């Protein structure tokens, strides 16, 4: 109903979904589902019924401009000491989750027969669930996984089930059972406690808001220049994280007076989740090979079991587990987005850093399991 090139019409629809989610989050059931979960489900349904397009220039603009700006805004009050002290535990959880991903992919090859492409399929799913879709493309090319029908099916499953996993983890973050069993040291993670979008932070002054936006935009601009200069344009989020946390730590006495910047960051991230939901194609996924469903299911179950066991043994709290799990399965932007939405200020940077580590490790892990399963390139 809304054309991809109808920028303002599409923006109005996305903002309406975000406003609806912020309002419903005040209800009893909405608090359990959370604003992000409501947005994902609503945008997903709107795209399936043709109300929203699955791709549009506006979606790319939100990814390109609003996501890094939101991360920079929320990190303006990051404490570098706490980032490192808490980040080490997120890294441990991430490595455990990666081991669970690898084990799940291997287990799936024992349960189902995926034919001649079994090793390649295991490789691409292991890679994408150790850092994100960038790894999927790189490993698919490296192992010669170029069958168009299988490749499109794998991409569809990765897309829609990945969204489902994000929704699941988003719900889990608000479950009282998980919070009771894995609630250790949460006071060190929470800046002001999980809050819903409509009540988070204060509105702030016009001066404070514009100053925060100027600082965040400047940090993103400088980070892009630095990333390009050193030849790592794909790791711009890493440069943003390092730069903003350093500035925030050095100037924490002055930046602590800012208010309202977290509200802007959350609004941008709400739009980001709406884009993710709208881009998922349920029908294409349903037409995919059933064996791939089994493999992704095994990976997700194994990953979560590894995470929960490690959380119990190592006394990791639920925020660290959720952040590390999303950094592993969905990549750094999603991990940062959830940390922002739940006000886990000290886990935003660790989520980005471990997710970027996943970009690096995912290719090696994917190609490694390809070799382990006896795969050979054409």
From TrEMBL:
<dbReference type="Pfam" id="PF05684">
    <property type="entry name" value="DUF819"/>
</dbReference>
<keyword id="KW-0472">Membrane</keyword>
<feature type="transmembrane region" description="Helical">
    <location>
        <begin position="292"/>
        <end position="314"/>
    </location>
</feature>
<feature type="transmembrane region" description="Helical">
    <location>
        <begin position="263"/>
        <end position="280"/>
    </location>
</feature>
<feature type="transmembrane region" description="Helical">
    <location>
        <begin position="160"/>
        <end position="178"/>
    </location>
</feature>
<feature type="transmembrane region" description="Helical">
    <location>
        <begin position="233"/>
        <end position="251"/>
    </location>
</feature>
<protein>
    <submittedName>
        <fullName>Membrane protein</fullName>
    </submittedName>
</protein>
<feature type="transmembrane region" description="Helical">
    <location>
        <begin position="348"/>
        <end position="373"/>
    </location>
</feature>
<keyword id="KW-1133">Transmembrane helix</keyword>
<feature type="transmembrane region" description="Helical">
    <location>
        <begin position="33"/>
        <end position="51"/>
    </location>
</feature>
<feature type="transmembrane region" description="Helical">
    <location>
        <begin position="119"/>
        <end position="140"/>
    </location>
</feature>
<feature type="transmembrane region" description="Helical">
    <location>
        <begin position="206"/>
        <end position="227"/>
    </location>
</feature>
<feature type="transmembrane region" description="Helical">
    <location>
        <begin position="90"/>
        <end position="112"/>
    </location>
</feature>
<keyword id="KW-0812">Transmembrane</keyword>
<feature type="transmembrane region" description="Helical">
    <location>
        <begin position="321"/>
        <end position="342"/>
    </location>
</feature>
<feature type="transmembrane region" description="Helical">
    <location>
        <begin position="58"/>
        <end position="78"/>
    </location>
</feature>
<dbReference type="InterPro" id="IPR008537">
    <property type="entry name" value="DUF819"/>
</dbReference>
């Amino acid at each position: 109903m809304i054309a991809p090139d109808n920028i303002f019409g599409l923006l109005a629809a996305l903002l309406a979904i975000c406003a609806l989610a912020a309002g419903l989050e005040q209800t009893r059931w909405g608090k359990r589902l959370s604003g992000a979960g409501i947005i994902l489900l609503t945008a997903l349904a709107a795209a399936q019924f043709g109300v929203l397009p699955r791709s549009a220039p506006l979606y790319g603009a939100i990814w390109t401009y609003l996501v890094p700006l939101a991360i920079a805004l929320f990190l303006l009050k990051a404490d570098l000491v706490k980032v490192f002290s808490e980040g080490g535990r997120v890294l441990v959880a991430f490595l455990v989750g990666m081991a669970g991903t690898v084990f799940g992919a291997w287990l799936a090859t024992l349960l189902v027969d995926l034919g001649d492409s079994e090793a390649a399929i295991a490789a691409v799913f292991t890679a994408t669930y150790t850092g994100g879709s960038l790894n999927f493309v790189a490993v698919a090319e490296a192992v010669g996984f170029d069958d168009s029908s299988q490749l499109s099916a794998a991409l569809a499953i990765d897309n829609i089930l990945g969204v489902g996993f994000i929704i699941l983890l988003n719900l889990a973050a608000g479950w009282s059972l998980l919070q009771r069993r894995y609630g250790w040291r949460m006071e060190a993670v929470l800046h002001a406690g999980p809050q819903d979008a409509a009540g988070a932070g204060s509105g702030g002054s016009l001066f404070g808001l514009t100053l925060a936006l100027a600082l965040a935009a400047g940090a993103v601009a400088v980070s892009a220049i630095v990333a390009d200069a050193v030849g790592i344009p794909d790791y711009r989020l890493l440069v943003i994280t390092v730069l903003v946390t350093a500035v925030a730590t050095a100037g924490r006495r002055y930046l602590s007076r800012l208010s309202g910047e977290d509200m802007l960051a959350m609004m941008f991230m709400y739009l980001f989740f709406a884009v993710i939901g709208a881009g998922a194609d349920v029908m294409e996924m349903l037409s995919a090979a059933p064996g791939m469903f089994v493999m992704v299911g095994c990976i997700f179950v194994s990953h979560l079991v590894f995470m929960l066991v490690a959380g119990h043994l190592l006394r990791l709290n639920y925020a660290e587990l959720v952040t590390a799990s999303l950094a592993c399965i969905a990549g750094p932007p999603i991990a940062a987005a959830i940390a922002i939405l739940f006000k886990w200020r000290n886990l935003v940077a660790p989520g980005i850093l471990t997710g970027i580590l996943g970009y690096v490790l995912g290719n090696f892990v994917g190609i490694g399991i390809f070799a382990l399963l006896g795969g050979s390139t054409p």
